[in-house]
Amino acid sequence: METKKKTSGKHHYACGKRKTSIARVKLYKGTGKITINDKDAKEYITIKELIHVIKSPLKLTKKENEFDISVQVEGGGPCSQADAIRHGIAKALSGYDIELRLPLKKAGHITRDSRIKERKKPGLRRARRSPQWSKR
Predict the structure, then answer these.
(1) Beta carbons within 10 angstroms of residue 2's beta carbon
(2) What are the average pLDDT values for consecutive 10-residue runs of the chain, which has 136 residues?
(3) Is the pTM of this model over 0.85?
(4) Among 2, 91, 121, 135, which is most buried by a count of CB atoms within 10 Å?
(5) In the CATH hierarchy, which top-level class contains the domain 12-107?
C-alpha cells in the first residue's frame, strides 16, 4: 500500500473557478511536480492539450521548474477542471510575486470566466427553449 506524501511548509494558496469546477491550489517551492487530487497530473488528466492549459501560466512567467503544485479540484468535466486549475495557479503566482500579475492579466489568466449555465425559466423546457407549438 502506497503512503501519501504530505506536503508541508510555506505555500501560496489560491482558489480557481470555471463553470461548476472549483480548484484549490497550493504552490510550494520545489521541482515542478503537479499533483491533482493526490494523483500525478498526467495520470488524473489524460488529455494532453489540457496539461498544456494547466502549465500555461507557469510557462508564461518562466517558473515551470520552481514550484511543486498541489491541487484539490471538484465539479465539472475535465476541460472545466483544467481551466479552474489554470485560474488558481495564475492567482497563486500573482500572490507569490506581484510583478507577475501584469503579464498574467494581459494573457487573460487572472480574469475569472464568469460564463455559467443559465437557469431554467418557468413555462419553458430549458432556459430559453419553449414548448413545441402546434398550429392545429
Answers:
(1) 5
(2) 58 94 95 94 94 95 93 96 96 94 95 93 96 93
(3) yes
(4) 91
(5) alpha beta
